[in-house]
Write a structure and sequence with these properties.
Strand content: 15-25%
Order of helices and strands: EEEHEHHHEHEEHEHEH
Strand order of the largest sheet: 5-4-1-8-6-9-7
Number of helices: 8
Shape: globular
Helix content: 40-55%
Distance between the termini: 9 Å
Radius of gyration: 16 Å
Oligomer: single chain
Structural class: alpha/beta
Number of strands: 9
Amino acid sequence: MNKLYVGLVHYPVVNKFGDVVTTSITNLDIHDIARSCMTFGVKKLFIINRLESQKELFTRIKKFWDSDIARKYNQDRVTAFSVLNYEFTIDDAVKTIITQEGVDPVIVTTTAARREDQISIKQLNDLVENKPILLLFGTANGLTEDSHNNADYILLPIDGASKYNHLSVRSAAAIVLDRISSEK
């Protein structure tokens, strides 16, 4: 899928009590998800957070990985960071994709919860052939109900070998990206 975009959403997400919150960006999430995105041909990884203070933190991290020191230290990570983009809202990410692609993206959300309105990755691949996709992953305890309701599709959760189902967002992103590229 050559028109795939990923959004790592820090707002709006819910905490373990169901409250809508804003989470902080983490260096580890940025690094690992950027590497997965680069591996699977994602066009852009949007770090979506409404706080200016978080953009400043993102900018400091990115500035280091744009430096000569970083290029000497770990060129692979520098390359992976080339897919990063910061946006304040999901709508801002959509506007960036429209500017780049000339059409609205298909918005797809992810969740670890079972719902009746979910589709498989194979169904997604069949439904959106040759259309840009914005695939959203939520931090904390996941995306808000409004985010799912505003999406075009919601993916089925990742099934493991046990009933335990609470992957880190970086692990979930890597698994979903692998399955999108391999389940044709």
